[in-house]
C-alpha cells in the first residue's frame, strides 16, 4: 500500500472521529440543558399557574362564605336588619265603642258590636263580661264559640259577641226586663280588666233576660256570633 493511500485513510478516520465527538458533545449539552432548565421551568410554570388558580378559588370561597354568613345573620336578626314585630295593644273602653243590636233570627238574641274608633289596631280578648245593670254576676260564656285566634280590629273594624237573652221554651225561669247592660273587657289572660264596665242600652230600650242567658266569645263575623 502506498504512503499516499495510508495518509488519506488516516485523515478520513480522524474526520469521522471528530464528527462523532462533535455529535456526542451536542447531545450531551442538549441533555444537560433539558435537565438544567427545561423540565424545571415547565414544572415551575405549571406550579405557579396551579397556585394562582388555587389562590383565586380560595378568595372566591371566602367571598361566598362571607356572603352566606351575612345572609344567615340577617335571617336570624343578628345582622344589619332592623325589622321588628309590632306589638298590638289590647282594646279598652277608650279605643272601642260597644252597642247592642237586635236580631230577627234566632229569636231571643241580641248582638254586641264593638268598633275600633282609635287610629291603631287593638285586640279583643276572650269574651265580654256582660251583666244586667246593678247585678253582681255576669253571663256565662258559650265555650263552643271560642275562636282559634284573638279578634284583632284595625281602625274602623268591628267584632261581635252574640247574646242569648232567654230560652224559647221557658226553661230559663220567669226572667225579668232589663234596660241596660254592663259590658266589661278581658285582658290577655282572660281576666276582667281594671277598667270600669261600659253601660250599653238594650235594643229598643228593653230586653227580657232569664237564667239561661249566655254570651259568645268575640268573633269577627256577625253570622258566627249569633249562630250559637
Task: Describe this entry's structure for a reader.
The protein is of the alpha+beta class. It contains two helices and twelve strands. The strands form three sheets. Strands 1, 4, 6, 9 and 10 form a five-stranded mixed beta sheet that branches. A hairpin with a 6-residue loop joins strand 2 (96-102) and strand 3. The longest helix has 74 residues, at 3-76. Mean pLDDT is 76; it is low at 1-12 and 16-85.
What is the ordering of alpha helices and beta strands?
HEEEEEEEEEEEEH
What would the average pLDDT be, to the nearest integer? 76
- Detail the poorly predicted runs: 1-12, 16-85
Cα radius of gyration in angstroms: 49 Å
Major sheet attributes:
5 strands, mixed
**Relative helix content:** 25-40%
Give a brief outline of the structure.
This protein has 228 residues and is α+β, with helices and mostly antiparallel strands.
Keywords:
228 residues; alpha+beta; 5-stranded mixed β-sheet; 34% helix; disordered N terminus
Mind sketching the topology for me?
Elements: H1 3-76, E1 89-90, E2 96-102, E3 109-116, E4 122-132, E5 140-141, E6 151-153, E7 158-164, E8 176-178, E9 180-186, E10 198-201, E11 207-209, E12 214-215, H2 222-225
Parallel strand pairs: 1-4, 5-12
Antiparallel strand pairs: 2-3, 3-7, 4-6, 4-9, 7-12, 8-11, 9-10
Amino acid at each position: 500500500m502506498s504512503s499516499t493511500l495510508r495518509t488519506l485513510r488516516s485523515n478520513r478516520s480522524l474526520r469521522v472521529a471528530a464528527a462523532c465527538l462533535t455529535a456526542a458533545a451536542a447531545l450531551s449539552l442538549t441533555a444537560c440543558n433539558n435537565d438544567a432548565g427545561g423540565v424545571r421551568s415547565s414544572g415551575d410554570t405549571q406550579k405557579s399557574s396551579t397556585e394562582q388558580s388555587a389562590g383565586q378559588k380560595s378568595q372566591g370561597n371566602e367571598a361566598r362564605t362571607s356572603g352566606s354568613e351575612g345572609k344567615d345573620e340577617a335571617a336570624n336578626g343578628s345582622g344589619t336588619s332592623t325589622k321588628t314585630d309590632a306589638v298590638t295593644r289590647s282594646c279598652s273602653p277608650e279605643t272601642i265603642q260597644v252597642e247592642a243590636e237586635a236580631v230577627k233570627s234566632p229569636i231571643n238574641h241580641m248582638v254586641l258590636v264593638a268598633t275600633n274608633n282609635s287610629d291603631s289596631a287593638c285586640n279583643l280578648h276572650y269574651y265580654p263580661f256582660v251583666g244586667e245593670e246593678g247585678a253582681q254576676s255576669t253571663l256565662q260564656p258559650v265555650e263552643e264559640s271560642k275562636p282559634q285566634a284573638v279578634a284583632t280590629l284595625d281602625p274602623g273594624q268591628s267584632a261581635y259577641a252574640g247574646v242569648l237573652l232567654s230560652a224559647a221554651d221557658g226553661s230559663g225561669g220567669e226572667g225579668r226586663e232589663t234596660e241596660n247592660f254592663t259590658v266589661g273587657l278581658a285582658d290577655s289572660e282572660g281576666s276582667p280588666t281594671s277598667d270600669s264596665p261600659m253601660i250599653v242600652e238594650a235594643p229598643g230600650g228593653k230586653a227580657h233576660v232569664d237564667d239561661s242567658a249566655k254570651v259568645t266569645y268575640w268573633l269577627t263575623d256577625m253570622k258566627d256570633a249569633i249562630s250559637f
